[in-house]
Design goal:
alpha+beta; five-stranded mixed sheet; 6 helices; 5 strands; 23% strand; Sterol-binding-like protein; SCP2_sterol-bd_dom_sf; SCP2_sterol-bd_dom
Length: 126
């Protein structure tokens, strides 16, 4: 089942993140050890619609739609900024400092996302 939503083109990255987590048991366990949290993403597209996905690196080691169960940290940003972030064209810290990325919950856990996003970065064609 694809996690991509046509209204949010960059959401294809969630499929790539899920693939990289499921590439091998060792990869998944390593990502869970590094992240050890539930990361929720709420994206807003140009039409003003919002949709959420989550990367569960606490219990399942998988990606799914929705905010997930008790997210440790929630990241809210525009669909285009998310696309730039996973493509390596944007810096999360700069997006946060400029107010384009809003973080609720454990801000320090958000820093643990970088290696997970980098794995998808090489595979996602956005």
């Amino acid at each position: 089942m694809s996690l991509k939503d046509e209204r949010f083109p960059s959401s294809a990255a969630f499929d790539e993140i899920n693939k990289s987590l499921n590439a091998s048991e060792a990869d998944r366990k390593d990502a869970m050890k590094q992240g050890n949290a539930v990361f929720a993403f709420t994206l807003k597209n140009g039409a003003g619609e919002t949709e959420s996905w989550n990367i569960d690196l606490k219990n399942k080691g998988a990606v799914s739609k929705g905010v997930g169960e008790k997210p440790t940290v929630t990241l809210s940003l525009s669909e285009s900024d998310f696309g730039a972030l996973v493509a390596g064209k944007a810096n999360a810290q700069r997006l946060f400092m400029s107010g384009k990325l809003k973080i609720k919950g454990d801000v320090m856990k958000a820093t643990k996302l970088d290696p997970i996003l980098k794995k998808a970065q090489t595979k996602a064609k956005l």
